[in-house]
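Hi R.,

Here's the chain you asked about this morning:
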Amino acid sequence: MKKLGFFNKIIFFFNTLFAVLLLLSYILPYVFPKQFPLISVLSLTVPVFIAVNIGFMLYWLVQLKRQFMLSLIILLIGYKHVGAMYRLSGSSESEEDGIKLMTYNVRIFNAYGWLKDNDVPEKIVELIDREAPDVLCVQEFYYTQKDAFNKNYPYQFIKYTTRNNRTGQAVFSKYPIVERGSLEFPKTGNNALYVDIVKGKDTVRIYNLHLESLHIVPSKEHISDENPEMLFKRMGNAFALQHRQVEIFDEHRQGSKHKMIIAGDFNNTPFSYVYKRVRGTMKDSFIEQGSGFGRSYDFDYFPMRIDFILSDPDMEILSHKNYSELLSDHYPVMAKIRFGKTPEKKGE
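And the predicted structure, written out as tokens:
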């Protein structure tokens, strides 16, 4: 510090502060939201802490100052967090045999006109038809589109969860569905659907999971106008509800005798207890084959990844794709998955 000027000493002070905050954030996936809901909200800030520490590291490197080691060491300690936020390279397309699964929160097909375009429902259907997933998991499905996918998806399961039977979740499949059901979460319109699909000799369970919403309007203007204390408290309550929903889900999946894929809108980040518990030992398609930030939610402040596709450890993620078409407050996510790993060649 003796060789640092006054300005750089101030910079290093803030560098140290953000390095400590990032280090402490590494324990957030182990904090129970039911017991510490407000602390759990801080998991949303982890991408900011990572980005700021990268900025400090580059600042010192340009000046050839050894202080860059502070942020570098903290980032290396949490390399899994960094990898969950950004991937350098991956595969968005694959010609190998597997199923293509898409998850998409369609925000009830713009029924209340959040987007100015009048043809949003048609554009969503066109996008799905063009990308042609074999299995489609939809959150916030709207009853007006119940026949939109009949042509390409002979096997369907739609469950309306609101009192007026207009909104809910849905799974559309090109492969036969031999078992289906819904996990009802208390005091909410959110739930989890499950279907067992048959492809060849394989039967695989697919969950379409929609956890409690944080009810954040994704714009700087709205967030800056809202009372910070009320916003923070509401998000903490939502995280606590998510914890209970994940417990219900976790208990149910223990009874499945099939390999499984979990897809959906978790309304939480990869740095949270909720994600950690749902994922367990499963593979995250973005971490396996994604690239860039993997943004799945339209949020002004930073790229948020809250929509996931997770697969059984014995499955192989062949590709992962994030889309940029803004037809909802979420972006669709698709992965191609092979049910069994590629056999290793002799001598390898």
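The domain at 99-338 is CATH 3.60.10.10 (Deoxyribonuclease I; Chain A).

Let me know if you need anything else.
M.
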